[in-house]
Amino acid sequence: MKKFVIIFLLLIYPILLAHSQTTSYYLVMKELQVISATKEPVSYDSIPRFVKIITREEIDKWQAQNLFELLKHLPEFYVYRSQIFLKAIGAFGVKQSYFSEKVQVFIDGVPLTDPSNGSSFSTNQNISLNNVKRVEIVYGPMTSLYGVNSCLAVINLITYNAEDVKNLKVGTVVNTDFSNDSYFIKSFKKGKLSGIFSLNYREDRGPHEFYVDWTGRSSNLSAYFKHLTYYLRLKHDSGFYLNFYGVDRDNNFPLNIVGIIVNDKSYTRRKAFINRFGYKRDIGKLHFDVYTYFNWFYIKRGYNICLVDICSQFFLDSLYAVEERAIRNPGIGTFITYNTSFGKISGGTDLNVVQLYKTNLSANFIPSSLSFDISKIKVIPFQKLPSSDILMDRVSRTIISPYLQYQFIKKTYSFLLNFRLDKLNDVGNAKTASFSFRYKLSDIWTFKLNTGRAVRAPSFEEMYIKNNPILQGNRNLDFEKVDSFMPSVEYRGETLSGSLLIYLNRFKDMIYKQTLVAGTQQWKNYEHPVLVKGIIFSLRKRLSNFEIYGGFNKVFSITDIEDTIFLSYPDWKLNGGISYEEEKFSWDINFEGYSRIKKGNIKEVPGYGLVNFSFLLKPKSSLKLAFKVNNLLDKKVIYPFYKTLAPSNLEGMIGEGRNLWVGLEVSF
């Protein structure tokens, strides 16, 4: 991989130095109005927060079908998969759990978070980008504006509106593993009402590959994931609007939750209905937005925890359980902005109610009797268990959150102040604040500073799990706090741009799994601070129709923390590539490089590098033909495993080998 990096740098060095025709470099960026940094449009050049914009052109260049595929190209994010093939992300040196709860995702300002676990990615493992015209990523502590769990970054998907899609757009892609991704986008307008509807259907079919688990059992296996996502945006000229986002997804796992080959009875079914109905209006210097919502989340999962050959010794086919939960999430909120001669004052209040109103468990064993010695497990006929034996009681959480924002913008400098109070009936109160400052050193150089505190609220799963001798809940958990200090420098020329960001994140009361005795863990707040320090560097050079780009993330140090793989993160990650674009076609070849991973209670993961290639043909404005090869050199992709659960020989992750995608998009 080092040889590839050296060759890559040698190739781009003379191009960076070469004389090129002076062309405007991303003038669109300079004129762009960014929404996510302040909850209202602000010019990109004036924002004091560190913001990264991914345009539709870049999404098409990489042919990223969903958010996971996009974040792989950004060095500050680490996309990985668990042993049961669930995808997750880490950021800024922190791997997190598979819930990825420290990074929050929004669609047109509406959070996609499952309020029971604080995760946007458990709601939808395929956050489609087919209807997205740009992605706005705001870095740093954002709890003071967006609420709990917005700790490391906020990702806002800005979708097409009725003016962007004239009538109808349809597309499909399929790969050599028979995975496929299809979408449909339709705009409409009738009188004063306009809207757009999009639908995405995706199937991920892992190839039938030979697999050996950590116990030595082997099998040809394949995972299967199905995602149906639909999104409706309505807007009336009077100011009323409606956003409705729905998810229906199925996962079938060939492994159990600790990575052992079982049978095909393990599955998860999830549904989510997320909405916002509101009214916006401008009256002179006053702008206000009043909204309400009633979200609903549902999960049903079955899991077999018994190995077939061992169960048969006790005349069992399986130790099998089916869990069912439903959550309703009503709420109301306001956001008001007033322009004054001395700056802009904004603020609002959110009332968010989370009710776990349905929780059932059916099983052929008593969960509290679980043991590595199967003879001690209390086996019963498969039946619905009484409330005393289920894994989680019905619980409710109410969050009241007043917040205030002050922004002052001048041509050469600007700053933001944010304050917020989050009152949770079951955890307590959290006060957060942030300060962001921008100073224009020259026409092309800008200095920014972002600092403040963010908090993560413990989830229902971390607090209220019971009757589980393997992982116990903890009702006494406190907020996880993150104090951040992020200075940065940005350079924006006509054909060259770059940035350098230093991050120092200090975690206090970090929520992790503490091992009590062998085979038993409990969620705890870590008693010592955890400090993560690192640097992110990015560079882009435009040369006529070519663009050379690269990014690098280096984690300098992480404080040790016991019994966790949350910090099992690459010491460095490198991204880079070369792209070429003309009116009728474009191509891109890019590289992902990952250092080895040694930190945490894991088996050491070797470093690796991946090369990807994509080609886009546009014979006419209404037609696109796509071709993409992931992992062109068919390198092994390996993710962290607990030492006790890792196979003796770490093999490449199934489904991450070389694969080819071909696609078609037609606009009418």
Automatic annotation (TrEMBL):
One Gene Ontology cellular component: cell outer membrane
Single GO MF annotation: siderophore uptake transmembrane transporter activity
InterPro entries: Beta-barrel_TonB, Beta-barrel_TonB_sf, Plug_dom, Plug_dom_sf, TonB-dep_rcpt-like, TonB_rcpt_CS
Single GO biological process annotation from the record: siderophore transmembrane transport
Residue ranges of domain TonB-dependent receptor-like beta-barrel in the record: 233-632
Domain of life: Bacteria
Domain (TonB-dependent receptor plug) ranges: 46-150
Pfam families per record: Plug, TonB_dep_Rec_b-barrel
Membrane topology label: Multi-pass membrane protein
Keywords: Cell outer membrane, Membrane, Receptor, Signal, TonB box, Transmembrane, Transmembrane beta strand, Transport
Gene3D superfamilies: TonB-dependent receptor, beta-barrel domain, TonB-dependent receptor, plug domain
Keyword match GTP-binding: no
Keyword match Transport: yes
Cellular localisation: Cell outer membrane
Family: Belongs to the TonB-dependent receptor family.
Protein name as annotated: TonB-dependent receptor
